[in-house]
From TrEMBL:
Keywords: Membrane, Transmembrane, Transmembrane helix. The keyword Transmembrane helix applies. The chain crosses the membrane at residues 33-59, 83-104, 116-134, 140-159. This is Uncharacterized protein. It comes from Tessaracoccus bendigoensis DSM 12906.
Length: 191
């Protein structure tokens, strides 16, 4: 009697080695303190911008304080309730959404490990400073938080963190190697 044939199987697949330390709980690279700082300061900047806009609305709702409710309103000095004052209110609302959105996106994307959050942070800082220029001095607090968000993305731990995320998101596989010789037609073993 002959011995039964063994079933041949492939070896187990190797685990993907990304070259970045991964948290066993989340499977993501561990966040440095700079990422926590960037996200927290971005969200604080958004909260301050919302508070500054709410203060403007409170001051604009009262006829006595409307002319000094924002610098833009002081510069243009429109009549309350006319089309120009309503247009300025629309401009201030759009500026609030734009600057708060830019700061929030910069902090959130720094938290998620995207390298372009550095440029988003610089853009958010410029937009927040422009918003402070047309509203009030209270918005300078948000400029400070936006500066912390922007500067913390340029710290060395964040550079490593961004590199780890790049390795996790797009692992480099083995590239294509051109064979030394290409055979056309029937293979030699079948001739």
């Amino acid at each position: 009697m002959t011995e039964p044939k063994q079933i041949l199987s492939l070896p187990p697949l190797e685990e993907m080695e990304v070259g970045a330390p991964l948290s066993p709980r989340t499977g993501e690279p561990p966040r440095p303190a700079a990422a926590w700082l960037a996200a927290a300061s971005a969200y604080l900047a958004v909260a301050v911008l919302i508070a500054v806009y709410a203060l403007h609305w409170w001051l604009a709702a009262h006829p006595d304080t409307y002319p000094t409710s924002a610098r833009l309103v002081e510069w243009v000095a429109p009549d309350p309730g006319k089309w120009l004052s309503l247009t300025l209110e629309g401009i201030l609302a759009a500026a609030t959404v734009l600057s708060a959105g830019a700061v929030g996106v910069a902090g959130f994307q720094a938290w998620n490990g995207w390298r372009w959050s550095r440029w988003a942070g610089l853009t958010a800082l410029a937009l927040t400073a422009a918003y402070a220029a047309i509203t009030s001095d209270w918005a300078l607090i948000a400029v400070g938080f936006a500066a912390v968000t922007s500067l913390s993305t340029f710290l060395p731990p964040m550079t490593r963190y961004f590199r780890y995320w790049e390795a996790v998101r797009s692992p480099q596989g083995e590239g294509y190697r051109r064979p030394a010789r290409i055979l056309y037609g029937r293979l030699p073993r079948f001739r």
